[in-house]
Design brief:
By secondary structure, the protein is mostly beta strands. The chain is built from one helix and nine strands, in the order E-E-H-E-E-E-E-E-E-E. The protein is globular and about 30 Å long.
Length: about 100
C-alpha cells in the first residue's frame, strides 16, 4: 500500500493505493474524483506532474514516457504506483462523501 499526495493551488489531499490499482481507481474509492474523460490515458484530462516517486503503466500511453522521472507528466487513469507519490494534477478535483 502506497501513500499518494496530490496538490493543486489551494487543494491538497492524501490517500492510499494498492500496487495493483491505478491511481484514479484508488482516489475514487476514497472519495476523490480526479478529472477524467476517456480513462484510457489518451485524452489527457487526468494529466498530473509526477513530483516524487515512480509509476508503472497498465497500458502503453501515446506521448507519455513509460518510466517518467520527477517533473514529467503521468496519466493517473493508467498509472500504478511503485512507491509513495506526490502529484500535481493540472486541474482541480472534487471530493464526495464516503
Amino acid at each position: 500500500m502506497f501513500r499518494i499526495k496530490i496538490s493543486f493551488e489551494d487543494q491538497e489531499a492524501e490517500f492510499h493505493c494498492k500496487a495493483s490499482d491505478t491511481i484514479m481507481e484508488a482516489a475514487r474509492r476514497q472519495g476523490i474524483l480526479l478529472a477524467s474523460y476517456c480513462e484510457q490515458g489518451g485524452c489527457g484530462a487526468c494529466t498530473a506532474v509526477l513530483e516524487k516517486g515512480s509509476v508503472a503503466y497498465i497500458r502503453s500511453v501515446k506521448g507519455i514516457t513509460q518510466q517518467p522521472a520527477p517533473g514529467e507528466v503521468i496519466r493517473p487513469c493508467s498509472a500504478m504506483p511503485l512507491d509513495d507519490l506526490e502529484l500535481a494534477p493540472i486541474s482541480r478535483w472534487k471530493t464526495f462523501p464516503k
